[in-house]
Design brief:
By secondary structure, the chain is of the alpha+beta class. It folds into 2 domains: 113 residues, Up-down Bundle (Glutathione S-transferase Yfyf (Class Pi), Chain A, domain 2); 173 residues, Nucleic acid-binding proteins (OB fold (Dihydrolipoamide Acetyltransferase, E2P)), CATH 2.40.50.140. It is 33% helix and 16% strand. Strands 1, 2, 3, 4, 7, 10, 11, 12, 13 and 14 form a 10-stranded antiparallel beta sheet that branches. It has a 3-stranded antiparallel beta sheet with strand order 9-8-15. Helix 1 packs across helix 6, helix 2 packs parallel to helix 4 and helix 3 crosses helix 5. GO terms for molecular function: tRNA binding. It is found in: Cytoplasm. Keywords: Coiled coil, Cytoplasm, Protein biosynthesis, RNA-binding, tRNA-binding.
Length: 389
């Protein structure tokens, strides 16, 4: 099985991977031809992928599937991931895409999914990038500059001196005239000393606040109710839903659930919606949110997917938050900045406990923060140890 055949199978399942127009297709094709060399230098690739979700703009492409294939061997044979966290995050993300899973189903023995327990991986050290101080340009030699410019400025200086002398004479005459008119003798006048200007204290510039590390409370999760669901007109793997999240108008959402749920399972369901991801256009339809689903720890194809459900009786628009004093009362971001990778950083810690309760596990402290509304904890109907996304 070649990389090209695997990529072709994924693109057949999701034609948009090839690009929406001629320009996009050309750019994606160029990136695809570079993926083998990218995978040969994991350190450089890690730096490249740190600010990126996908190789081309904000949607997956065939170049991502190609890079996934070339990364499969080095990832599967490298148990140490602490030095390449962005590569690992990217690899697992592309591995879980519906078109990649479709290609796995067609070619089960080629580039098979890797089961990596990220909760057991060491936390990569945070790198602090020091600001580069600009070097001041050395001043030109004063004597050399004076010598070079003497001829140019000599006449100007002489002319200026002459003008100054003339001006002084005129001003002196004017002052004497004014004193005489006011009846003030020059000998008895007292010169007023000029008040020295008080130097203003230099303003202390407030230190810039350090940017906050990604926190789960930045994610805006709400109760939503599916008002309508239908197949995407141009993508076989997608549904297009209309979701009530407590706003004046329902939100349009595209979800890749065709392989895992029937329309009647989705219609009317009360679910959890992530509302502050950046909108993305999927095959001509703009999607304004994401539905939170639980995927079996055995894989979506083997164990299936199901919605994470809020407590019974929850109403559209109700706030969903994470337990814990640090997070409960924090206000979510208005819109997550894709460049900061907030959701991508937090999402690997989403899971379901033995009780099927949905939670986020802090990778540093291992503390468990359940996902809940004011009325109770959200949970999956059947899946334990599931991944949430």
């Amino acid at each position: 099985m070649s990389v090209a055949e695997f990529v072709a199978a994924a693109t057949k399942a999701e034609p948009s991977l090839a690009g929406e127009n001629d320009k996009a297709k050309a750019e994606i094709s160029k990136l695809e031809s570079q993926t083998e060399s990218m995978a040969a230098d994991l350190k450089s690739l890690n730096d490249k992928l740190t600010p990126l979700t996908y190789l081309y703009e904000n949607a997956p492409s065939s170049a991502d599937v190609s890079l996934y294939c070339h990364l499969h061997q080095p990832i599967s044979s490298n148990p140490e991931f602490s030095s390449i966290p962005s590569v690992l995050r990217y690899f697992l993300q592309i591995q879980s895409l519906p078109p990649t899973e479709s290609a796995h189903k067609q070619f089960p023995n080629s580039f098979p999914p890797l089961d990596i327990d990220i909760s057991k991986l060491p936390i990569p050290p945070r790198q602090v990038v020091e600001a580069v101080k600009k070097e001041k340009k050395p001043k030109a030699d004063a004597s050399a500059a004076a010598s070079a410019q003497e001829g140019v400025f000599g006449a100007a200086v002489a002319a200026a001196s002459s003008v100054a002398a003339t001006a002084a004479a005129v001003v002196g005459s004017a002052v004497e005239t004014v004193k005489s008119a006011a009846g003030v003798e020059d000998g008895n006048s007292k010169k007023k000393e000029k008040k020295e200007k008080k130097e203003k204290p230099a303003k202390v510039q407030p230190a810039k606040a350090e940017p906050l590390a990604p926190m789960p409370s930045m994610i805006d999760m709400r109760v939503g109710k599916v008002l309508d669901v239908k197949k995407h007109p141009d993508a076989e793997s997608l549904y297009v839903e209309q979701i009530d999240v407590g706003e004046a108008e329902p939100r349009t959402v595209c979800s890749g659930l065709v392989k895992y749920m029937k329309e009647e399972q989705i219609q009317g369901a009360t679910i959890i919606v992530i509302c502050n991801l950046k909108p993305v256009t999927m095959r001509g339809v703009k999607s304004y949110a994401m539905l939170l689903c639980a995927s079996s720890k055995d894989g979506k194809d083997e164990g299936g997917m199901e919605f994470v459900l809020p407590p019974e009786g929850s109403q559209p628009g109700e706030r969903i938050y994470f337990e814990g004093e640090k997070y409960e009362n924090e206000k979510p971001e208005e819109q997550l900045n894709p460049k900061k990778k907030i959701f991508e950083t937090i999402q690997p810690g989403f899971t379901t406990l033995d009780t099927r309760e949905a939670a986020w596990i802090d990778p540093e402290t291992k503390s468990v923060h359940k996902i809940r509304t004011k009325d109770g904890v959200c949970r999956a109907p059947s899946l334990v140890g599931a991944s949430l996304s």
